[in-house]
Design goal:
about 325 residues; alpha+beta; five-stranded mixed sheet; two-stranded antiparallel ribbon; 7 strands
């Protein structure tokens, strides 16, 4: 598909209108210059005929020429202002079109991913329950199938929680209740619960006894989404490293994976709502593009900052820095 086919039709019509306005502007400028020149020559001829002597004719001719130059300057000034405003308007409109197109594409990807993320666990749970219902299985096999169903249900629950949380953020209906929390214990407990659904090895380096003003309901979402993101983009059997340390003025939390890493272009966009690298129809990894958007918002609400950098020799490191003691 070429660029002309990719360009949105309204934007193409806008470019046609812009070219038409430019042509009209050029024609208007030409007519103004020609009209001024014509008036100048007519007045010059009339002045020569009515002048009493050569000196008067020369003086009046100089005055007419100065007026002509002044009109040229006025025409050029007005035309320049019009042209600058037109170009600025075109740039603003083009950027608005591009943002709207990007948002539409991201929303389409979101709908496609949500449809897949909803259908997949529901179909899996249905199949597992039907298996138990229709077949005579020993207790161990039933226990295994029920555990798989619970895992899929938990996956579905996380998806719904993320969607609801993102909606609350967008509607400004979100408040945190921060209290002194031992986040060393909290992070350790969250990782223990998440290990069952992660195919990678998780290594922890958690400094004990770190206290932070945190919201116990939403803070786990930071850890869970960072772990889920690291797991999605890491090969099975690789290592995810989680570190929690307290420095003099900050509490630092980092989650490192050994995946393919993130391009510099994607690093600028990964915290945007719905953003996911690639196209939803060809992308292999699961997700909705809400996880990192939620993480960034919650980190900022906890007086923190988040950044991403390259891991060595491969992968990415998401680093969060909190400032303790701030309300």
């Amino acid at each position: 598909m070429n660029n002309a086919q990719k360009r949105p039709r309204p934007l193409l019509l806008f470019y046609i209108l812009f070219i038409y306005v430019l042509l009209q502007f050029g024609w208007w400028s030409y007519l103004m210059v020609e009209l001024n020149n014509e008036i100048y020559h007519l007045k010059s001829d009339l002045n020569i005929k009515n002048a009493k002597n050569p000196e008067e004719a020369s003086r009046t001719g100089n005055e007419l020429e100065e007026k002509l130059h002044l009109r040229w300057a006025m025409t050029a000034g007005e035309g320049s202002v019009f042209l600058v405003l037109l170009v600025l308007g075109v740039m603003q409109t083009r950027n608005a079109f591009r943002k709207e197109t990007a948002l539409t594409r991201q929303q389409k990807n979101f709908l496609l991913s949500v449809t897949h993320e909803l259908k997949s666990p529901i179909a899996s749970v249905k199949l597992q329950l039907e298996t138990i219902q229709k077949r005579e299985l020993d207790k161990e096999k039933q226990k295994e199938i029920l555990q798989n169903a619970l895992t899929d249900t938990e996956r579905l629950n996380k998806l719904v929680e993320n969607i609801l949380l993102a909606t609350r953020i967008d509607n400004s209906a979100f408040t945190l209740h921060r209290v002194e929390t031992n986040i060393s214990e909290l992070v350790d407990e969250i990782i223990k619960q998440a290990r069952a659904s992660i195919k990678q090895k998780v290594e922890c380096d958690i400094e004990p006894g770190i206290i932070l003003l945190a919201d116990g309901t939403t803070f786990p979402s930071i850890i869970l989404n960072l772990l889920e993101n690291a797991s999605k983009y890491s090969p099975p059997g690789s290592t995810i490293k989680v570190k929690l340390k307290k420095n003099r003025n900050t509490v630092s939390l980092s989650v490192a994976n050994e995946g393919q890493g993130i391009s510099e272009e994607d690093k600028q966009n990964i915290f945007q709502k719905f953003y996911r690298a690639g196209n939803e129809e060809t992308r292999k990894t699961k997700g909705t593009g809400l996880g990192l958007y939620i993480v960034k918002y919650l980190v900022e609400q906890h007086n923190g900052t988040i950044s991403v950098k390259n891991n060595s020799p491969s992968g990415s490191i998401f680093e969060v820095n909190f400032t303790p003691g701030l309300q």
